[in-house]
Amino acid sequence: SVGEAINTDIITLTRFLTEEQAKHKEATGDFTLLCHALQFAFKSISYYIRRATLINLTGLAGTSNTTGDDQKKLDVIGDELFISAMKSSGRVKILVSEEQEELIVFDEYPNARYAVACDPIDGSSNLDAGVSVGTIFAIYKLPEGAQGTKEDLLKPGSEMVASGFTMYGASAQLVITMKGGTVNGFTLDNSFGEFILTHPNMRVPKKRAIYSVNEGNSLYWEEPVKEYVNSLKFPGEGGKPYSARYIGSMVADAYRTLLYGGIFAYPADKKSPKGKLRILYECAPMAMVFENAGGMAVDSHMRRMLDVVPQHIHDRSGIFLGSEGEVQRVIDVHKKHGK
Ligand code: P6P
Predict the structure, then answer these.
(1) Is the shortest distance between the CB of 125 and ligand 1 below 6 Å?
(2) Pairwise CA distance, residues 96 & 78, whole Å
(3) What is the pLDDT of residue 124?
């Protein structure tokens, strides 16, 4: 019958959030409204990225951000869109963006209870090449009576109430998880302008022979990292080498690792002693997604990533992220080296 032909059990992000809120009797609806502002930002950024090549938004904006990277026009637009979406939600008190050196404080909303950290367009150096980029976000709830200072964000990632990312690939893929919850993937249906639940309860495979690291940094790697990567490439008698997959856009590499399994690594090394990726809006949010999907994430000292506390809002860290069995191999090699 027609009913069977048409899948009417379509769960939109809006419905999902409403059902999630209903599970928490004490919920005020503030978090739900914050998430609606987030999805608005993702839809808008997705729109501009798809139009970028058409209306020539690619290329340099002629300005540079705090880290000195050449800012692409889309970086600027993505950042402005995200900031205005968070501000107009009326639920965000403070915001950290990779594109902004200083903490952003929304004084207009003294009762706002949330702090957000984000990388509006992560991987933007790949934009002109049409490589998938993404927005990564982390959400903390302000403690009672907190005024909203950067100290409210200099916390272990384990205190996040939610985190996730949106990858702008063939379609916009949103992956979101709440503290202690499951990981759910949504696909933006452009005809309805709705995020549809396409990957409920995502689980990262326990093992997978795929490694994702920039081997161009091998010269700078510490010994344990060199030994670990070589053990994947030269497995010895009868062993089968791992496949190498590296896109150079964290959201794309992380999404593949979440779906297929394997390991993504950006180790701290002699060139970047503190690592390259940022704790607040790259490492910690990704770590919560992977832990909630049954995976693991550690830093270059083999500490649980979600226990690491940044000293400054743009602090960096080394990271090993992915299947439990693959991250455990990294830990075992480091243990052998007394690390
Ligand atoms: P590299 C992109 O610039 C980024 O911040 C992440 O998205 C990505 O994983 C990493 O840097 C790539 O760095 O040094 O391999 O180009």
Answers:
(1) yes
(2) 14
(3) 86
Nearest CA to ligand 1 atom 13: 248
Index of the ligand 1 atom closest to the CA of residue 122: 7
ipTM at complex level: 0.97
Check residue 52 and give its pLDDT: 78
- Give the residues of the chain that fall short of pLDDT 50: none
The verdict on the CB of residue 126 being under 6 Å from ligand 1 is no
Query: Is 99 a pocket residue for ligand 1 (Cβ < 6 Å)?
Result: no
C-alpha to C-alpha distances, 129 to 149, 178, 247, 252, nearest whole angstrom: 38, 33, 11, 14
Do the beta carbons of residue 109 and residue 116 sit within 8 Å? no
Residues 6+ apart with CB under 8 A from 135: 41, 42, 45, 78, 82, 118, 119, 120, 121, 122, 165, 166, 168, 251
Closest CA to 133 of 46, 257, 246: 46
Q: How many residues does the chain have?
A: 339
Query: Which residue CA neighbors atom 1 of ligand 1 most closely?
Result: 248
Residue pair 66/102 in contact (Cβ under 8 Å)? The answer is: no
Give the Cα separation of 285 and 307 in Å (integer): 12
SS3 99: coil
Q: Give the predicted TM-score (pTM) of the model.
A: 0.94
CA distance 176 to 168: 15
Sheet containing 114-122: give its strands across: 104-105, 92-97, 114-122, 133-141, 162-168, 172-178, 183-189, 194-199
Q: Which pLDDT does position 172 carry in this prediction?
A: 96
CA-based nearest residue to 164, from 182, 149, 151, 150: 182
Nearest protein Cα to ligand 1, atom 12: 248
